[in-house]
Write a structure and sequence with these properties.
The chain has 250 residues and is of the alpha/beta class. The protein has helices at residues 6-22, 34-44, 77-80, 100-109, 122-126, 141-151, 164-174, 188-197, 214-221, 235-248; strands at 61-64, 67-70, 74-75, 89-92, 97-98, 112-115, 135-139, 155-159, 181-185, 205-207, 225-229. Strands 1-2-4-6-8-7-9-11-10 form a nine-stranded mixed β-sheet, with helices on both faces. Strands 3-5 form a two-stranded parallel ribbon.
Amino acid sequence: MNQPSNPEVERIVRLVVARLSQQNAVSSAATVGSSAVATVLEEQQTSVLGEPQSAAESTTAEQTAGALHLSNRIVTLNDLKDRLTGVHKLHVGPKTVVTPAVCDLLRRLEIALVRSSGHTTSRDSAAGPKNGQAFIVIANPEKLQSISALAKQPLSLFPAGAAIDQVALQLSQQLESNSQSVWLSTHPFAVQIACGAKSSPALRAVSLHASTDLPRAMAEARPNLLILDDSRWSAYQVAKLIQSWTHSKH
């Protein structure tokens, strides 16, 4: 069976969100179900590409100091056209739907996806994570979407894809002593070595095997980066870990 192209996927996402909105059933952008997608595909058949884009709200964009802020409900490739020059962070709302094609593009361009809370203005979030205000999460785009929806707090999301050494260097330059970050990787031992090779005293990385190890890790090492094995941690487990770690610091 032929797989839908990126434009088709984006059209389908728009149609699904519109349908669920009409039924007052949209509780989170990440909960768009496969059954709803199948229903839209079945009804639209070959007319998907010709469907108007009225389901999406008009794009409101603001660009400040290397950051692009979008306030629309759905972010597609069309919304980013000619807007990413010099951009290092894309800021969206906590329930904004970001299509898979956009996630792939952000990963290739090494642009961070930042979901702001409802109480944070775009200019506040542009300043980046300070004093624990934003929790940094590095993972593959698909798992980032799920973690963001489940964690229910402001997160700075970085799609994995860049070289491990490069990401470790960026973290060592960005993290403060009271920052909090999680790096979900399929190569956790390589991540640990890369972080250990950075001489920055601000980077204190610890590999965590289970959420029950968090209190001991906090007591012994006071880490600001937890390294997790992507094959052993689900999005739900990561989200619960983030919540537990956040609450332990308050």
